[in-house]
Amino acid sequence: MSTTPPPAPSSTLTTSSTTTPTRALVLAGAGAAGNAWELGLIAGLADGGVDITNADLVVGTSAGSTVAAQITSGTAPSELYAAILAEVPVPPSRVGVSTRPRTPQVSGPSYLEWSDAIIAESSDPADLRRRLCAAALARDAAAGSPQNRWREIVASRLPSHDWPRQRVLIPAVDARTGEPVVFDRDSGIDLVDAVAASTSAMTPYPVGAGRYLNGGYRRSENADLAMGFDRVVVLSPFSGRTRMPLAWRMDLASQVADLHAAGSRVETVFPDARAGDVFDANALDPSTRPPAARGGHAQGQALAATLAEFWG
Q1: What is the dihedral sign for C-alpha 186, 218, 235, 6?
Q2: Where does the record place the region Disordered (predicted)?
Q3: Which end of the chain is more exposed for a tag (fewer CB within 10 A), N or C?
Q4: What is the pLDDT of residues 215-230, one digit of tens each?
């Protein structure tokens, strides 16, 4: 956990002795491993007496959008954690086999190869999003996509398909325009569709006449959506790393700087060695989930005492 000092006295924080501070939880994406680590960490914190699921705002991006929907469903973090450990294990032939040489596969070219080439051609974030969307739409038109199946998969992962009463924001990108969008319970689309859109990496996800892509194309963690909240906890499975040019300010450090400038106190939490190197290998591989979840759970228990004072 990265501990950041409180803002200077001239900050715009609204907390006082008679005002309850507002709290936001930001959940970044990182495939199967990231989902499992975040759920394990949240369960570990809960076991240590710290419930961060009671945030006034939950922001979930890509795999983090799945976590956001899961933890606001009324299901206890311990149940969500136990469900990961109870998942059917990967075939024995794959257990213990290093995944380091591989990159996440969706279908056809690897996701990293596909997106790295587009990043290299782009001049700024808006140009990147336009190029990513154009490439995804072209890929979809050429090959077709079983998006009904993706909706079924996403739906099966969510304990509830209804938007929670708690405020949840799920970013995505409009594939037709390249413009960022942020879904919430007032957006007029189902929670399942919002999560499916935010988790679609290479293939546009259809919602009515619209087509949407991964929320991470808006900004990596999308922590800036917590602007105005007094205390912000950011869970970043990829430890704030970015493949984008730093000048674009899509990275977590820039988002945290913006939050500080607006008066927020921020804690960032990254995976430690207890989760293994699943985030340096293939984060989309389901076999990464148990070690990531166990590592997150142990880390959450260890962090509980420190985070309790911050969270309040």
Answers
A1: negative
A2: 1-20
A3: C
A4: 999 999 999 999 999 9
